[in-house]
Amino acid sequence: AQRVTQPEKLLSVFKGAPVELKCNYSYSGSPELFWYVQYSRQRLQLLLRHISRESIKGFTADLNKGETSFHLKKPFAQEEDSAMYYCALNSGSGYALNFGKGTSLLVTP
Amino acid sequence: DAGVTQSPTHLIKTRGQHVTLRCSPISGHKSVSWYQQVLGQGPQFIFQYYEKEERGRGNFPDRFSARQFPNYSSELNVNALLLGDSALYLCASSLGGQSNQPQHFGDGTRLSIL
Fold this sequence. Notes:
The complex is a heterodimer.
Chain A: E1 3-5, E2 10-14, E3 19-21, E4 24-26, E5 32-38, E6 45-49, E7 60-61, E8 72-74, E9 83-90, E10 97-99, E11 103-108
Parallel strand pairs in A: 2-11
Antiparallel strand pairs in A: 1-4, 3-8, 5-6, 5-9, 7-8, 9-10, 9-11
Chain B: E1 5-7, E2 10-13, E3 19-24, E4 31-37, E5 44-50, E6 53-57, E7 64-68, E8 74-78, E9 87-94, E10 104-105, E11 109-113
Parallel strand pairs in B: 2-11
Antiparallel strand pairs in B: 1-3, 3-8, 4-5, 4-9, 5-6, 7-8, 9-10, 9-11
């Protein structure tokens, strides 16, 4: 069965500190992994996907198949990064995104 | 481009009633997916439609149904509403049905069951 686990419900860091939001998945095949973000009073939006290997708003995420992880990282957190972050897996069938429960990131000055 | 639009924004129903939620995808997108998000949880997949055909269904009872129209807009119908159906219902569209294509979400419809 496919599963996405985000172990931290809430993560609080100081501005300028590094941040890592954890995501682990269970899937036997080759997954497509995404990070979605929801800022206050805004809709859920795509932050990045592993296939793109890109950095968005300073965030990166590397797929580690050995550890079945897709952690989201940023070296220096900003207050505007405060939001709800969801890790999501697409099994390759094309039609279903499996979401984790989300991690609320709070960046304080 | 207005993005994915959903209507209504909020809806209050009582147990046993039925409800229809509507979604218009981004122009050019042919795939529409529906998700249910209860408080404190991530979105949970309900349906995906591509080119007006159902491509996938999540673990939801038959009270939930959906369809996609020739203009690629979609409706989600829920019959015999239960208190547990209270949730935010999200619609997402993508260009096609490939797994590596990002899904773009609407603001959702907040459904409350009394």
